[in-house]
């Protein structure tokens, strides 16, 4: 098992990660790369979308930098610049620690996270030559979004450069009100957990158009009608109440419909990503800077208090008289 995230076979330099700075200058914002983290249920089309976005950006002469964070993926349809599988052997982790598939993915991710400083060094080196950095994550969504290592990876990326979470939805499989609501609640929980600029991508629109989703999110009554068509049970009335809760989530939510298969919706996807980057600078970054400042202030206050106590405890004592004769 390698212990160093590899990039084209070369070792990362021994440097600290870059910082996004205060992001105040237009030129600095323009020059900063953008991290796009693909998250979604198994089979929603993350990997296919990665491949499509990769091809689209190549066409735009903006070749992205691609990072695979799924240790268990058998075959990638694209060339990853950094691949977790080059650092951690998922099958070896499973047998060495006697783990099942999910435990194997989680432990592989934990091991990889211990080398995150090296990843960030590579990212920093590549930041001037790539506008977009794409991150594919495991289909076992909770392993990335609810694990300490997933949080460390996400927070480290977001503290360094503008970062957008792209939540991929399998549109044909969410066309029933119950599945739609469950998926949106999941999306809401991920937004709440990461607190990052967020974009819901309704994928597979070549199979089912995402018009129904847009209508349900913008018109509460149309969703209620769909619910009552569905059934009249307790679940339906529970979903009615939850729908009210989600209404506020929808009001702020950025969505786009795409087909990773045909490429439909790619320009619109990037318009929304640009919009999410703006939110990163306008809201996320100032809030992050406030948190950092508060942490520093509280650490300083703690140190001052320790010093004050130390000084209070100080007393001058007179020793025994020494006979110099
Ligand atoms: N029709 C259609 N099929 C799609 C689209 N995107 C992905 N698929 C299909 O959906 C299936 C799952 O796609 P993947 O890209 O492997 O999904 P994933 O989310 O990466 O899956 P995991 O790795 O299990 O998490 C594959 O059969 C894809 O061909 C799309 O836009 N349209």
Automatic annotation (TrEMBL):
It is found in: Cytoplasm; Nucleus. Small GTPase required for proper nuclear import of RNA polymerase II (RNAPII). May act at an RNAP assembly step prior to nuclear import. Residues 1-25 are annotated as: Disordered. The keyword Phosphoprotein applies. It is an enzyme of class 3 (hydrolase). Its EC number is 3.6.5.-. The keyword Phosphoprotein applies. Pfam families: ATP_bind_1 (PF03029). It comes from Coemansia biformis. Belongs to the GPN-loop GTPase family. Binds to RNA polymerase II. This is GPN-loop GTPase. GO terms for cellular component: cytoplasm; nucleus. Keywords: Cytoplasm, GTP-binding, Hydrolase, Nucleotide-binding, Phosphoprotein. It comes from the Eukaryota. Its main location: cytoplasm. CDD domains: GPN1 (cd17870). GO terms for molecular function: GTP binding; GTPase activity.
């Amino acid at each position: 098992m390698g212990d160093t995230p590899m990039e084209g076979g070369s070792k990362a330099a021994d440097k600290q990660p870059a910082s996004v700075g205060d992001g105040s200058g237009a030129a600095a914002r323009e020059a900063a790369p953008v991290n796009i983290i693909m998250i979604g249920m198994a089979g929603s089309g993350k990997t296919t979308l990665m491949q499509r976005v990769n091809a689209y950006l190549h066409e735009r002469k903006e070749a992205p930098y691609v990072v695979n964070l799924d240790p268990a993926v058998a075959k990638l349809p694209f060339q990853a610049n950094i691949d977790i599988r080059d650092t951690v052997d998922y099958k070896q982790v499973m047998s060495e620690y006697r783990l099942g598939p999910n435990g194997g993915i989680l432990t592989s991710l934990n091991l990889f996270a211990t080398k995150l400083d090296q990843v960030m060094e590579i990212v920093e080196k590549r930041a001037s030559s790539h506008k977009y950095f794409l991150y594919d994550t495991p289909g076992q969504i909770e392993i990335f979004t609810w694990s300490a290592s997933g949080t460390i990876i996400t927070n480290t990326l977001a503290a360094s450069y503008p970062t957008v979470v792209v939540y991929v939805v399998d549109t044909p499989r969410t066309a029933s009100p119950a599945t739609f609501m469950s998926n949106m609640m999941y999306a809401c929980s991920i937004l709440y957990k990461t607190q990052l600029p967020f974009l819901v991508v309704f994928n597979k629109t070549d199979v089912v158009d995402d018009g129904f989703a847009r209508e349900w999110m913008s018109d509460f009554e149309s969703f209620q009608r769909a619910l009552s068509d569905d059934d009249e049970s307790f679940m339906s009335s529970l979903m009615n109440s939850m729908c009210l809760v989600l209404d506020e989530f929808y009001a702020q939510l950025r969505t786009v419909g795409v087909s990773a298969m045909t490429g439909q919706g790619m320009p619109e996807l990037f318009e929304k990503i640009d919009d999410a980057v703006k939110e990163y600078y306008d809201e996320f970054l100032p809030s992050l800077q406030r948190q950092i400042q508060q942490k520093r202030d509280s650490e300083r206050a703690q140190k001052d208090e320790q010093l004050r106590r130390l000084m209070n405890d100080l007393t001058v004592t007179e020793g025994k008289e020494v006979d110099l004769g």
